[in-house]
Amino acid sequence: MHTTVSFHKKLPLLGRNDQGLITLFDASSELLGPGGTAASPMDVVLQSLAACSMMDIISILKKMRKELITLEVDLEAQRAEEHPKIFTAIQINYRLSSPDCKHADLEKAVRLSMETYCSVAAMIGHQAVS
């Protein structure tokens, strides 16, 4: 796995992975004021947590032979007041539309993702994620 991030006279930063796929990063509005053109690095970390977990959940539920229509995740995070301003708490709410998936199936998939499979959750730390 390889990636580069570059700055060329102005924001946003441009990240490019080894397949040439691009991610843009901008500063948070609290740093530069309104008008940013891309998510902040911490926004991207939070979105990565959701995406990582969602990929796991989709895979697990498909292995359970469940039909998925939509899966959406809302995250609400709190950060430390002092630097480094790490996430101190993250609340995750999943919304699933499925004709045959029971709430218990989704709960099992979420638990497996967060406790076993999601690398981003492991890096953030289980104590912050609920």
Structure description:
- The protein folds into two domains: 3-32, no CATH class; 41-124, 2-Layer Sandwich (GMP Synthetase, Chain A, domain 3), CATH 3.30.300.20.
- A hairpin with a 4-residue loop joins strand 2 and strand 3.
- The strands form two sheets. Strands 1-2-3 form a three-stranded antiparallel sheet, with no helix packed on it. A two-stranded antiparallel sheet has the order 4-5.
- The chain is α+β, with helices and mostly antiparallel strands.
- The longest helix has 23 residues, at 41-63.
- It is built from four helices and five strands.
- Helix 2 crosses helix 3 (103-117).
- The protein has helices at residues 29-32, 41-63, 103-117, 119-124, and strands at 3-8, 10-17, 22-25, 70-79, 87-97.
- Helix content is 37%, strand content 30%.
Order of helices and strands: EEEHHEEHH
Name of the CATH superfamily of the largest domain:
K homology (KH) domain
**Percent helix among the residues?**
25-40%
CATH first level of the largest domain: Alpha Beta
In whole angstroms, the N-to-C terminal distance is 29 Å
Sum up the overall morphology in one term: globular
Number of helices: 4
Number of strands: 5
CATH architecture tag of the largest domain: 2-Layer Sandwich
What about the largest sheet? 3 strands, antiparallel
Strand order of the largest sheet: 1-2-3
- Give the overall pLDDT as a whole number: 93
Share of β-strand residues: 25-35%
How many individual domains? 2
Please compute the radius of gyration using only Cα atoms: 17 Å
